[in-house]
Structure formats: C-alpha cells, structure tokens
C-alpha cells in the first residue's frame, strides 16, 4: 500500500511543474504496474512488473502512431481492424501464463489509450513517461523493505526466504493431515508452495549461478526440501495417521529458514517402512545442509521444463482465446466509433480488461465490472462535490494507488478503485470526467464481452482445458517412465515430479474456471474432472513408488505395481470419454 501511494510521486511532480498532462501516462504506467504487484520475491517482480511495462510502453507508442495515421484514431474500418489483429496476437500470447497475460492486457489497453486519449505530448514522449511511471514503482519494489523489517541475511532475499520456509511448513501440514480427509488439500498446498518457491528462486539475475553465500544457502535449503516433500507425499498416499511429533522437524526447519539460526536437533521417525525411512533420511540430509552453510557450493538456478511461449501461443488453446480477444476488441471499437463519442477509447479499453480469462468466470467478472464501475463513478461524484483542483485529484490518485493491493482481492472492488483513479487522470488530462457516460460505456463493454464470450466460433471450444490435460498427462507419463527406468537419478526425478504436479495444478485451474462458466461454455469441459482425478492418483502413486524403489533393492513390490496398473487403466478409461 505504501508503494502504491508513492507511485503518485511522478504525477505530483508534473502537476507542480504545471504539466499535468505529462503525468497522466506516468500515472497509468504506475497504476498498471500496481495491479501486477503481488507478494513474492524481488527478483520475480522484475519480470512480473517490468515485462508488462515494456509491452504497455510499446502499445502506447503504437496507438499514437495509429491516431496520427488515421486522424485522432477515428475510423470505422482501419482502427477496428488494427485492434482486432493486435488482439489476436496479444490474446494468443496471454494464454501462455500470468506474466504473458499481463503483457497482452497492457499492450492492448495502451494501444487503445494511445489512439484515443487526446494528450498534447508526442507518442514517443508518452511511451517514455509510461515506462518511467512503471519503472518508478518497480524501483520502489526493489528498494523498500518488506513488512516486518529485516530478518536474517540481506533483506533483498526476504521473499525467497519466506517462499522456502513455506515449503517446510507445507510439508509439516501434509504430515499432520496424513490418514485424514485433509490429506488431499495438504498435498495440493504443498505443491503450490513448491511452485511459488521455484518461481521465486528462478527469477532473472545477471549470473546463472547464485552469487552470494546467503543465496546459495537458500538454494540448498530449497533442494533439501524436495526429498522431504516426496516422502511426505508417499506417507499421505499410504493413508496412515502419523504422530504429531513427525511434523516437528519440518516446522523447525521452516523457523530456521526465517530466522537464520541453527535448526537444532530434529525428531526423527522410526524407520519401519520405506516412507518413514525416506522421511528420516531427508531430515538427516536437511539437517546437514542447515548445519554446514559455509560449505554449500554455488548452485544452479532451479528451472522447470516447458515448451516455448510461441509454440503454446499458436496452439489450439492459444488461438481460441486470441480469436475471442480479437472479436471483442474489434466489435467494441466499431461500436465506440459508430456512437461518434468524442472520447471513444473507454469502451474498448474496458473490454480488454473484461476479456482476461485469469480474472474469474466470464459472467462473474462482467457483473463485478458493472457493479464496480457504478460504485466507482458514484464515489468519484461525491469526491468531486467535496473537493476540486489538481491537488485533490493527485491526492485521490495516491489514495487509490494505496488501495489497489487490497482491491485486487476482488474484481468488483478493483474495478471501483480503478474507475476512481482513471476518472481523476481523465480530469488531469484536460478532458471532462463525464462519470455516468463512462458507466454507460462500461455497461456496453460488459454486454459486448458477454456476447462475444458465448458466441459460437469455428471449431470446437474448450481447447484450453484439453490442452492443459494433455500437458499434464504427458508430464505424468514422463515422471512414471523415469521412476521405473532410472529411480536412482533423484535430481531428474525431482524435476519431473515438480513438472507433473505443476501441470496437474494448471489443468485443475483450467477445469475449475471452465466449470464456473455459464452452461454454453461449461459443457465443453464435461468429463475433464474424471481425467484430472485419475491423473492425480497416478502421480501420487508414482511418487510412492519412487520412495519405495529408493529404499529397497528388490524392485517394486507387487502391491504397488497392482495399484499403479489400476490407476493407469483408470486414466485410460477416463481419457476414452471425450472431454466436452
């Protein structure tokens, strides 16, 4: 919230210099960067905030060129065609991940604003100001300490430290939940924390290897958590309730990561079976890593396998979403141009935000957008009655920037805050606010997106769910093949296990999102939950087999082989039923 409030500093400086219009692009860049600002490591924030800012700057420049080419951006043919083509490409790229989604959204929003918002600054200057505003927020993210102050080691690694500590906490939680109905939720939570820690530690840096001793220790402690996670998953799969003291070791390791003090003696379980022996061995190895930090060698960055962004963008799933974005952008632009509204850009800019798939089900986000816009316009009207002038508008922008981190928890609340912020910037840019006209245009955008989102298009729908399931199935088979063929290669096995669980989590997210849509959309993912359930059982069983093979020389027990074969058959039967 402090960063969000300080993001208004460039706007304040431009108002003090009597150039308020120059502060508008900078404030827009800071606002969009603030929407992307999430808890996590500083290193990860470089890509999460920086890449969308570069995309938005390029989009603002492109929009300015469009406006200069066609004359104030008014054309019923050229502008919708350009926006539609950009929407196709940006939408396809957006389907490949959260950072790519932010990039696609910012480039489209910036193109629309660059083409439609009448600002006196040239396009190049606008783009640089936009980049400066986003860069200022990124600088604040990198420089300001996180809440709670400095703990152990350099504060620059506090996000990474917390992510690694959360892995050990999740291991303890899964051990506590073993043998209970909460075991599945515990395993899902463990997989999520492993993904977050992997992302936090694999962010951009100048060198491939970890440079400082503190960073090398953190990488080693993350690596030491992987065998613990594997053992905990195998014990949860066995379904045996474990004593509470078994979770004490991982909890002490989590506390040691946060505080930097030695972990001390760890309670070790009795090694009566493969799962408990694996847990015992993993605790011993983790204790050795924690007690000898100075001997940790420079570590490689934890990576994750995956296909190229362009290949995923031009897949069936990427093209399906890209086509939806293209139709939505072109249709809303035609409608805005046809209405002959002087400030037509609000409608397509609203449409771009609404068409994002990672903001929840389509019908839900349309309703939230409508409610948030009406509420935001009403609040702005009240603020306009109470106070006026550039100083009050700058204060409103600063307040909205501070509220953005809280508002992002719900799309309606975020929409309300963004509406007040953007209306303030519109006034500072020299345009009339026309709050209720913005409400009408937002409602038109809601109707446009709702229509195009359910409009029948060529080919089958639901490519996103099917593609996510196919990716997860392929990752699971690679993991199983490695466990059966080369169980002694723990490093590759761990990487394949992470890929399998990460792919499964993405597939479940796609399924849940599709299932929450209205029937014309949700029916295209019918049957996918059965595939995901069978896949989850197969991956958990494979993990249990990996632990068993790692602690016995006689090969895979017959009972494990039978369960594995049963899950493979169940997965084949589930996949035989067409999804949708």
UniProtKB/TrEMBL annotation:
Keyword Transmembrane belongs to the record: yes
Domain Integral membrane bound transporter: 333-451
Localization (cell): Membrane
Name of a matching Pfam family: FUSC_2
InterPro entries the UniProt entry points to: Memb_transporter_dom
Keywords assigned: Membrane, Transmembrane, Transmembrane helix
Topology in the lipid bilayer: Multi-pass membrane protein
Principal subcellular localisation of the protein: membrane
Name this polypeptide is given: FUSC family protein
High-level lineage: Bacteria, Bacillati, Actinomycetota, Actinomycetes, Kitasatosporales
């Amino acid at each position: 919230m402090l960063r969000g409030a300080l993001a208004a500093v460039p706007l304040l400086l431009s108002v003090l210099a009597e150039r308020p219009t120059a502060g508008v692009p900078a404030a827009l860049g800071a606002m969009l960067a603030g929407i992307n600002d999430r808890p996590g490591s500083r290193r990860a924030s470089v890509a999460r905030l920086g890449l969308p800012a570069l995309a938005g700057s390029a989009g603002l420049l492109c929009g300015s060129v469009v406006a200069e080419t066609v004359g104030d951006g008014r054309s019923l043919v050229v502008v919708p065609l350009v926006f539609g083509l950009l929407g196709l490409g940006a939408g396809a790229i957006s389907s490949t991940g959260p950072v790519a989604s932010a990039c696609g959204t910012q480039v489209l929003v910036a193109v629309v604003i660059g083409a439609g918002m009448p600002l006196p600054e040239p396009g190049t200057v606008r783009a640089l100001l936009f980049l400066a505003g986003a860069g200022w927020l990124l600088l604040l993210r990198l420089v300001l300490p996180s809440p709670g102050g400095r703990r152990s080691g350099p504060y620059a690694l506090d996000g990474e430290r917390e992510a690694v500590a959360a892995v050990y906490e999740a291991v303890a939680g899964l051990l506590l939940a073993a043998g209970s109905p909460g075991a599945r939720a515990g395993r899902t939570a463990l997989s999520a924390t492993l993904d977050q820690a992997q992302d936090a530690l694999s962010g951009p840096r100048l060198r491939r290897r970890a440079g400082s001793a503190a960073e090398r220790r953190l990488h080693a402690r993350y690596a030491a958590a992987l065998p613990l996670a594997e053992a905990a998953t195998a014990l949860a799969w066995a379904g045996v309730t474990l004593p509470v003291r078994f979770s004490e070791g991982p909890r002490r390791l989590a506390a040691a990561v946060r505080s930097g003090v030695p972990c001390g003696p760890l309670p070790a379980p009795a090694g009566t079976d493969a799962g408990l022996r694996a847990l015992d061995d993993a605790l011993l190895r983790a204790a050795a890593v924690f007690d000898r930090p100075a001997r940790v060698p420079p570590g490689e960055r934890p990576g994750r396998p995956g296909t190229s962004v362009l290949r995923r963008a031009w897949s069936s799933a990427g093209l399906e979403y890209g086509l939806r974005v293209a139709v939505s952008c072109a249709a809303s632009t035609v409608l805005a141009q046809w209405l002959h509204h002087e400030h037509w850009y609000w409608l397509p800019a609203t449409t771009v935000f609404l068409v994002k798939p990672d903001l929840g089900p389509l019908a839900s986000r349309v309703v939230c957008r409508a409610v948030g816009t009406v509420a935001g316009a009403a609040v702005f009207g009240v603020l306009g009655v109470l106070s006026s002038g550039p100083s009050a508008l700058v204060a409103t922008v600063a307040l909205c920037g501070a509220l953005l981190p809280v508002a992002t928890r719900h799309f309606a609340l975020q929409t309300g805050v963004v509406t007040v912020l953007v209306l303030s910037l519109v006034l500072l840019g020299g345009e009339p606010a026309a709050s209720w006209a913005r409400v009408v245009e937002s409602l038109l955008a809601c109707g446009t997106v709702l229509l195009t989102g359910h409009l029948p298009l060529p080919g089958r729908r639901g490519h996103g769910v099917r593609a996510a399931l196919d990716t997860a199935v392929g990752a699971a088979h690679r993991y199983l093949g490695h466990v059966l063929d080369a169980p002694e290669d723990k490093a590759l096995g761990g990487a394949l296990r992470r890929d399998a669980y990460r792919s499964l989590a993405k597939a479940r997210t796609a399924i849940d999102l599709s299932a929450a849509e209205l029937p014309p959309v949700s029916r295209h993912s019918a049957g996918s939950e059965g595939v995901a359930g069978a896949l989850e059982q197969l991956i958990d069983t494979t993990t249990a087999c990996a632990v068993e093979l790692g602690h016995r020389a006689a090969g895979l027990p017959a009972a494990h082989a039978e369960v594995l074969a049963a899950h493979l058959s169940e997965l084949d039967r589930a996949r035989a039923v067409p999804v949708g």
